Amino acid sequence: MPRKSTLKDVADAVGVSPSTVSKVLSGTARVSVETRLRIEQAIEDLHYIPNVVARGLVQGQTYCIGVVTQAISSPFYGAAMLGVQEALDDTEYAPLYMDGRWMPRREEQALGRMMGRVDGIIVLGGRLDDDRVAHYARRVPLICVGRKIEGLEHQSLMVDNDAGARLAVEHLLELGHRKIAHIAGSPQQPDAEARKQTYLNLLQAEGIEVKPSWIVHGDFREQSGTLAMLQLLESGERFSAVFCANDQMAYGAMLALYRAGLRVPEDVSLIGFDDAYTSSFVLPPLTTVHQPMEEAGRAAAQGMLDLLEGKDINLGHLKPRLIVRESVRAHW
Fold it and tell me: How does pLDDT run across 188-212, given as a tens digit for each residue?
């Protein structure tokens, strides 16, 4: 195996000191353009790969950004992770991903394992208590996406759940639906509860009495959407439309309707929330509320880079929008 080129090899090839090469790599060198170009050419010719770990030890940095997601396989969180990666592509930083699988114990384990391994952490959603998240935020720069932590309001990036749920429910109401069931997310999830409350408020404002049997809770995964729809069908209640708190549960609900011999949207209209990439390709394509999660990932990563440079940030809210496809029809 050929010997790897070293920093000294590059320096010797150009006729400068190793510290000059190191400063060029870090962007802090005060050298002529000609010298810089000669160093960069020697690096290329010698196939020199900088030792980021060694440089990090000297500078007290890891050049890693931790990302604690809930499910690495989730199309919803996948969009946010893609946004993080895109924002870091042209920087020295690399993302390090771990998932909590919606279990506070695993989320805390992930945060603990990242201590000392990353320069900052982005937390996507989660169920870990706010005070525990704040505890880690006192030890390392931290940004939250999809939840707001007291004391970290400017470092919390939210999608307006009330506005998104309003878009979904008002769309159904405008098309004549009055008996609208709801497959909600976990009651422990603030975003799920916000969507459910908006659903209740809008129906009550229309003078529609929402029966308890119209609302069934899932856990944001496809299997729970199937089980929730089965429960709605077995309740004996008649409904013309279902508002699902996320797209993945809507996929599961579609499967339950198919197995029951019911057609979407001819027999039951279905609307989701998230606009996951796969929602364009289910049958029928799912009408849903778009959450700009890729944009959220990019904004969170850029916010982290700003924090690491000592800048003040204020991430605020992202606005959802309605995506009309083919899973909803008028009901007059």
Answer: 888 999 999 999 999 999 999 999 9
d(CA 242, CA 213): 12
Among 240, 261, 248, residue whose Cα is nearest residue 328 = 240
Q: How is residue 79 written in tokens?
A: 């969009």
Class of domain 62-159+293-318: alpha beta
Q: In the numeric block, which tokens belong to residue 188?
A: 């422990």
Is the torsion defined by CA of 249, 250, 254, 257 positive or negative?
Answer: positive
Q: Can you give the pTM of this predicted structure?
A: 0.77
Crossing angle of helices 18-26 and 33-45, rounded to 10°: 100
- The domain spans of the chain are 7-50, 62-159+293-318, 161-291
Report which of 92, 139, 149, 97 is spatially closest to residue 122, judged by C-alpha positions.
97
The DSSP annotation for 206-223 comes to TT----GGGEEE--SSHH
CB neighbour list of residue 150: distance below 8 Å, 6 or more residues apart: 130, 134
